[in-house]
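hey m, so remember when u said the C-alpha cells were messed up on ur end? i reran from scratch. heres the input so u can diff it against urs
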Amino acid sequence: MATTSVARRPTAVRAAAPRRAKAPQERYLNRELSWMDLNERVLQLAEDPGMPLLERARFVSIFASNLDEFYQVRVAGLRRQEAAGLGTTRSTDGLTAIEQLARIGERTADLALRHARLFQDEVVPALAASGIHIVRWAQLDTAQRESLTALFEEHIFPVLTPLAVDPGHPFPYISNLSLNLAVQVANPDAGRLHFARVKVPPLLGRFASPED
C-alpha cells in the first residue's frame, strides 16, 4: 500500500515584542486633586466682579455644596483605604491615600478661606447695596420681630421635635448636611433643665423675610 507523506511547514518563530517602558507618574493626574481644580474654577467664577451679582451668589453656593459632596464621597473613600491598611499603597499617579488626604486638606483650607472672605467681604455687601440684606435678630425693629415671631409659631415650631439626651441613651445620629440645634429644655414642674437636640427639617427654608 502506498503511503503519502505530508511535509510540515516550519513553525514561524515570532519575535518577542519589546517591553514598553512604564510611563512616568508625572503623566498622570490625580483624580481627587483634579476635582479640586475644577471646584476652584467654580469659585473663580464667583470671584469675577464682571459676573452678575445673583450669579456670583449662586456660584458661591455651588462651590460649598460641591465641597460637601466631595468630602462625603471621595474623601470618605480615601479614609476607608487608610483604615483598611492601604494608606501607603500608591495609585497610578504615584500618590498614596495618606498623601492625597494631606494635599486635599491643604487645598481645602485655602479654598475655604477664599470662599468665606468672598462671601463676607464682597457678596454680602453687594447684596445689601442692591436691597437684599442678611441681618441678625438684634438688627430688626419691633414690627419685623413680631412678623418673624408669628412665622415661627405658625409654620416652624409645629414641625420641630426636641430629642432629649441623657446618660441612659446614646447620642442621636446626626445625618450628613442636616441642620441641628443644641438646646436646653426646661421641665416647669420638676424645675430641671435637659440637654436636647433639635433637627431642623429640610423642608424649611434657610432664609426668612419679615414680609413673608
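this time it looks ok to me. The longest strand covers residues 179-187. if urs says something different then somethings off w ur setup not the seq
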